[in-house]
Amino acid sequence: MAAHTVVVSDMHLSEAQPLDRRRPLWMAYKRREFFIDEDFASFLGWLADHLEGEVELVLNGDIFDFDNVLQLPEEPAGHVDWLARLRGLGSQEWMSRFKIERIIGDHPVWFRALGDFLARGHRAVFVIGNHDLELNWPSVQEAVMSALGVSRTADEGEAPARVSFASWFYVSGGDTFVSHGHQFDANCAVPDPVDPLILVRGKPEVRIPFGDLAGRYMLNGMGYFNPHASDNYIMSAREYLRFFFRYMVRTQPFLVWTWFWSAVTTLLLAFADHVRPAMRDPLRVEEKVRDVAHQANSTPAAVRQLAALSVAPACSHPIAILRELWLDRGLLFIALVFGAWQIVLHINIAAPISPLWSFVPLALALPPYVFYARSVKPTVFKEPLLDEQRASLIAKITGVSRAVFGHSHQPEVKTVGPLTYFNGGFWSPAFAEPECKTRIGTQSYVWIRPRGDAGRVAALWEWPPGAREPRPFGGTDSRQEPGAAGAVVAADVLPSRGAGAAAAASSVPSRGQAA
Fold first, then answer.
1. Choice between 454 and 506, residue whose per-residue pLDDT is larger
2. What residue spans of 4-160 are helical by DSSP H?
3. What are phi and psi of 420, to 5 degrees?
4. Element (H, E) at 461
5. How crowded is the C-beta side of 336, counted as CA atoms within 13 Å?
């Protein structure tokens, strides 16, 4: 077992966005100047230099963002349809391979840093999340390992001990359940995490959940919204109008049409993929479960039980999907306009009146319409990823005492049922505005370290942008697991070679300072 386990998630590495001089703020958050690669390299270097023994680095989902890659190959290996030309390639294997090659090509610092970290005797576990579901393709995993300077063993075709890929969860050290958390979010859950492939027009594809399809086909076409912070794209009608007139009226005046056809496309594809059965070889069912268990450091029985613990995908509730896409309000408004027009047309048969009279029934219908529209609330992250019942079942199935998730981009520590629950937060570049001036959040992670004969203890830490050393999250001791008191953590977890721990701790910039 590794001496230390470090869990990071939600880096959302994608392609580099070139500057569009006609639309200079379009997907500005994807520009190279906002890449986290240098910070990640410094982070890994610090871990390798300061921690004794082997470090297990768990990359807990959404490390890569396949949904956000829009570039197309010059010589495609297959058919590229009109939708792919507008919103990016789908999830066939050759498409996913092209996308990971683009990510690798645009992030040499990130891959070189992780490769060096592995070469120094440490390990990396990729736990697959909802935005990097395409890591399920063997050739995509091979591309990642090749970029890291490792390869598969020749005998069994399994990843070597230094790098492994877990389907959706991983058990670290027998005491920590690590999962990205998307299987407990209806908008992003995969119906069958053990068998994520479906057959679409005779060709295998990775099944993409509703929430990610919305990101691909809606947000990719409205590049002023930053997908890394939900407040950037989930707004009230008034906020949307204000945002439109401030940023989009000149360069994307037909936004309503873009939203409508993108939302309808998302709806149709989500339901079509939802009803397709999983590709499953009856002769390999048990072998597949054993493979998933092996990579997750668990048992086949636990794999089946945890798969059954996943929530029902959002597509099981069509009305909820319509509301999430705003299609219920859009279609209802169209129906009101059509109904008002029909009233005037029928009256016009008996007595000729001006078409402008159609505004009268429309005005009468608007108050209840507005009341309904204001009553509909978004469901994104409104339900906790971990509740007491789910925590109790995870503890019984795996025997762990803590759980570490990502996905929500909300770093936190709390007790849920029998488990200490950590959310490791995120590293992706999230900003409060399209100009990318105000950074949202910090680069946080969960650190699990040995504590003598008393097992291991975990705490939430951060690597502030531009920093050279870590610090407890928020600069306080409130994000520690019971038993990880701040004074002990500062003394024991911030060793400094050639300098005292206190000096190392004090040199880390506090929140709000320039790093």
1. 454
2. 37-50, 82-87, 93-106, 108-119, 138-148
3. -90, 120
4. strand 456-462
5. 18
Contacts for 123 with CB less than 8 Å, ≥ 6 apart:
2, 54, 55, 56, 57, 161, 162, 163, 164
Q: Are residues 411 and 371 in the same domain?
A: no
Instruction: Using alpha carbons, select from 88, 65, 52, 57 the residue that is nearest to residue 13.
Output: 65
513 occurs within a structural domain: no
Residue entry with tokens 């019971």: 482
Together in a domain, 354 and 405 = no
Same domain, 336 and 294: no
Burial environment of residue 510 by CB neighbours within 10 A (0 to 12, 13 to 18, 19 or more): exposed
Which element (helix H / strand E) includes 176?
Answer: strand 176-179
Q: Rounded to 5 degrees, what are φ and ψ at 53? A: 85, 180
Indicate if 409 and 335 belong to the same structural domain.
no
Give per-residue pLDDT as tens, 180-225. 999 999 999 999 999 999 999 999 999 999 999 999 999 999 999 9
Shared domain for 293 and 345, answered yes or no, is no
271 lies in some domain = yes
> Looking at the 3D structure of the chain, how many domains does it have?
2
DSSP per-residue codes, 329-342: HHHHHHHHHHHHHH
- Residues 342 and 370 reside in one and the same domain: yes
Q: Which residue bears the tokens 């359940």?
A: 177
Residues 388 and 423 in one domain: yes
Indicate if 356 and 294 belong to the same structural domain: no
Parent domain of 234: 4-316+382-499
pTM over 0.70: yes
Q: Which residues neighbour 444 within 8 Å (Cβ) at sequence distance 6 or greater?
A: 411, 424, 425, 426, 427, 460, 461, 462, 463, 473
Q: What is the predicted pLDDT for the residue at 62?
A: 96
What is residue 473's predicted lDDT score, i.e. its pLDDT? 92
H-helix segments, 218-284: 237-243, 255-275
